[in-house]
């Protein structure tokens, strides 16, 4: 039987598009109000804020995150190749803007190690191209607390007019100019993606790609911090293979290690790791995480200051951190053109991490987010702060988990965190002048524990899915050994190639009948299946399209032990030789006797009379797929074998109809198309 298809009313896409444009272009006071409310979600939830119920959790989580943010901001400035003050600016503005525009209640947006690394790589490259020295050690002459003096310390003969910069601009001024231009462009990309609803781009970043990218980038971050751990002075490597080159330079200069920095790093790592492990073990008993990083920074700063470690042991320190805010400045347009390409992967990675964390929190706490609005929020968290000497931001997993575990209820906690950072910006920043860089490197390295632990999950990941494990390994290796941007691109392309390969060479099987039932399964995988006499049932577990057409045919011929084209040619030649034998010609062109040749060409005994194609796993057919099925129908019909299709979805049926598979009037559909394998088998038996 054939089900009667519903008649769908065709809707003109042009009319739908015009209707949407008219609706979008008409403005009413109500529509304007809804637009503002949607664009600033804080206007929706803040008036409904339950102060007595939420305020304690928000204040506690805000204070904890603020305390964590300060040392991390100072530490991650090493990754970005910028001064600590810019990291503090970034943390402050990102929290305020996401409070106004974000839809997630729990995500912590601010500086993130991977984003800082990507920014730092672009900054270092542009500084080298401009002729600056990448040696970032602080000179005593620049330690007077003045940002302007510090900016002019490292100067070069680079033509700043060509780059659109002030001729008095030094290394630090140029570095933050690059960072803000890069951040502005990343934010513009994210806003444009939100306007054109291009959030689907994140779907091409699978979990394996993201995990591999994060792990590979973590190895790069770890490598970049080793020189601070042991206090050696080596050039900051740039370009492809940075990880290998850096390690070579480290081992070449290991004899110059600063003993003071080595001892300090050892003590700090032991304290930090021990505190983290104890915190993880007893987290159910602790109301909030231990502020270990802050304690380590305070103690290390006091020891460095009163022990005069910089003057006596030449230990590298953070240097002057000015207080207050620098006047806002428009990012330089000429620099934007230089970093426009670099901003694209930065924008995508920033958005993907933010949305994935937002969705994770929303699922856990039973509320919804708007992915498109998240893209706008992250975009403006980059665009607006770029005018205030800040660099790119993203949601951070570690701080988000801390935020949720300390009772966070809404983004009011983000405002509290911003106030803590503001307090440091206005009053406390100069106190960190004597903080050793090796202490900051220790904080960064210990924060990578989660990403580096992914190596322990490789065996379990391999047991679950070998292809995903291969994607992880390739992405991680490319991100670490080549560069982070190239690694991300390699991971995306390789994961897509894996999908293509899996559809090019999918599983194929001959099916047998489960005894005393109307169900059929893979005869190779299951025991006690009975074959159907005179009927072969073939399953192809992928779409049938141009790339896997040949594999489909080869698999069909191999499993059924019959190539209809070869068999037809053999029969034709056999009949021709028989005609020659009747005429009395007993020799052939190759000199063999006609009887010997005829014996070699005896037609093969075919053990089936019907071929059933299980199309349940064929999601679509392209033109090549339809032509392939038509060829099969024709070739097997020449051998008196009927071809029956079973379990076709409506899309496949429509493709077959349009391709003329069922003839002009579709009159033969009832004898060629069946809604179950069992119906097709029963029909084949009846026809026999």
From TrEMBL:
UniProt keyword list: Cell membrane, Glycoprotein, Membrane, Phosphoprotein, Transmembrane, Transmembrane helix, Transport
GO molecular function: secondary active sulfate transmembrane transporter activity
Chain ranges passing through the membrane: 54-76, 96-119, 173-192, 212-230, 335-355, 376-398, 410-428, 472-501
Chief location of this protein within or outside the cell: membrane
Topology of the protein relative to the lipid bilayer: Multi-pass membrane protein
Pfam families, per database record: STAS, Sulfate_transp
Compartments it resides in: Apical cell membrane
STAS domain boundaries: 525-684
CDD domains per the UniProt record, alphabetical: STAS_SulP_like_sulfate_transporter
Any Gene Ontology CC annotation: apical plasma membrane
Cell membrane keyword on record: yes
Reactions this protein catalyses: oxalate(in) + sulfate(out) = oxalate(out) + sulfate(in); sulfate(out) + 2 chloride(in) = sulfate(in) + 2 chloride(out); bromide(in) + chloride(out) = bromide(out) + chloride(in); oxalate(out) + 2 chloride(in) = oxalate(in) + 2 chloride(out)
PANTHER family: SULFATE TRANSPORTER
Family recorded in the similarity comment: Belongs to the SLC26A/SulP transporter (TC 2.A.53) family.
NCBIfam families referenced in this protein's UniProt entry, alphabetically: sulP
The protein, known as: Sulfate transporter
UniProt source species: Indicator maculatus (spotted honeyguide)
